[in-house]
């Protein structure tokens, strides 16, 4: 006997279909689309598209750059699918530097990125220590607690910070979690001034994390790189060493992103590339 759908069920399915149509339209255009272009591609009224984009953005399924009218698929899809293409540019460039950093410090290293009103772990290289911190690729993290995410929150626009607080609040995970909005904003200012974030047992007892922003060649913060481990191994005496190693790794990612986007230097028929002959080194200009 066929079961007939109620009007409520039909409306829910229609709503789901419209959301998927928007995501599929963005999938076809990795360079991004404006709301009007999405409406044309998906066959949905523009007013409806705007309403769906707001909700999809809040969930991290769609993202946009401040000041831009274009939308792209969001990294929250990483937590749904388990992964996005493994060789995405940022992850592909950062992974070897994360591995070197993890081996150098013997601690777990994370690469995180803003996803809606949360952060998401794009990649991780685990420590070889017996006692270590483990994170799944795609795990979602709160922006306000823990250095790996707070270093990202620090570079959001003030109105974006307020939107995060309104949307998801400031849940407490331990007695060290910052739950007061004014105190959080003061700490975010400190992160911007220092250029790094440190978290002591804010998400889990006995855990310390230290993070720095990863910038693209234009200077925009595109991710955070974080060293995380047991508090007893990441004492104050190691902080300068960790910060120095983190700075080298994040600078290297920025440099390699610039080189990757510039493309290879074509060799001359009579010798090495011009930049090597002129400088006597293979450093990028």
What's the helix and strand layout?
Layout: H1 7-28, E1 33-34, H2 35-42, H3 46-58, E2 62-64, E3 70-73, H4 77-81, H5 89-105, E4 108-115, E5 118-125, E6 140-141, H6 147-153, H7 158-168, H8 181-194, E7 197-200, E8 207-215, E9 221-230, H9 239-262, H10 274-279
Antiparallel strand pairs: 1-3, 2-3, 4-5, 4-9, 5-6, 7-8, 8-9
Helix pairs in contact: 1-2, 2-3, 5-9
Description:
The protein is an alpha+beta fold and 285 residues long. The protein has two domains: 16-74, Arc Repressor Mutant, subunit A; 80-262, GAF domain (Beta-Lactamase), CATH 3.30.450. It has helices spanning 7-28, 35-42, 46-58, 77-81, 89-105, 147-153, 158-168, 181-194, 239-262, 274-279, and strands at residues 33-34, 62-64, 70-73, 108-115, 118-125, 140-141, 197-200, 207-215, 221-230. The strands form two sheets. The chain has a six-stranded antiparallel sheet, with helices on both faces. A three-stranded antiparallel sheet has the order 1-3-2. A hairpin with a 2-residue loop joins β4 (108-115) and β5 (118-125). α5 (89-105) runs antiparallel to α9. The longest helix is centred in the last third of the chain and has 24 residues, at 239-262. The radius of gyration is 22 Å and the shape is globular.
């Amino acid at each position: 006997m066929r079961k007939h759908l109620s009007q409520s069920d039909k409306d829910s399915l229609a709503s789901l279909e419209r959301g998927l149509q928007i995501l599929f339209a963005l999938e076809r255009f990795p360079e991004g689309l404006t709301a009007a272009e999405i409406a044309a591609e998906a066959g949905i009224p523009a007013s409806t598209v705007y309403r769906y984009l707001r909700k999809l953005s809040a969930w991290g399924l769609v993202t946009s750059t401040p000041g831009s009218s274009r939308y792209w698929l969001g990294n929250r899809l990483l937590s749904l699918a388990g992964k996005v293409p493994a060789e995405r540019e940022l992850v592909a460039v950062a992974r070897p530097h994360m591995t070197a950093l993890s081996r150098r410090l013997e601690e777990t290293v994370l690469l995180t990125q803003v996803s809606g009103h949360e952060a998401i772990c794009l990649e991780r290289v685990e420590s070889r220590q017996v006692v270590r911190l483990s994170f799944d690729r795609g795990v979602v993290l709160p922006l306000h607690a823990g250095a790996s995410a707070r270093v990202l929150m620090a570079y959001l626009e003030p109105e974006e910070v307020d939107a995060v607080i309104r949307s998801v609040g400031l849940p407490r995970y331990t007695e060290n979690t910052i739950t007061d909005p004014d105190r959080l904003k003061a700490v975010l200012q400190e992160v911007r001034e220092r250029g790094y974030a440190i978290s002591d047992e804010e998400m889990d007892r006995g855990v310390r994390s230290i993070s720095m922003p990863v910038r693209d060649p234009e200077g925009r913060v595109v991710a955070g790189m974080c060293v995380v481990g047991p508090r007893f191994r990441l004492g104050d005496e190691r902080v300068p060493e960790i910060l120095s190693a983190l700075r080298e790794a994040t600078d290297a990612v920025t440099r390699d992103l610039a080189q990757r986007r510039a493309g290879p230097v074509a060799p001359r028929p009579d010798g090495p590339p011009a930049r090597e002959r002129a400088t006597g080194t293979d450093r990028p200009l």
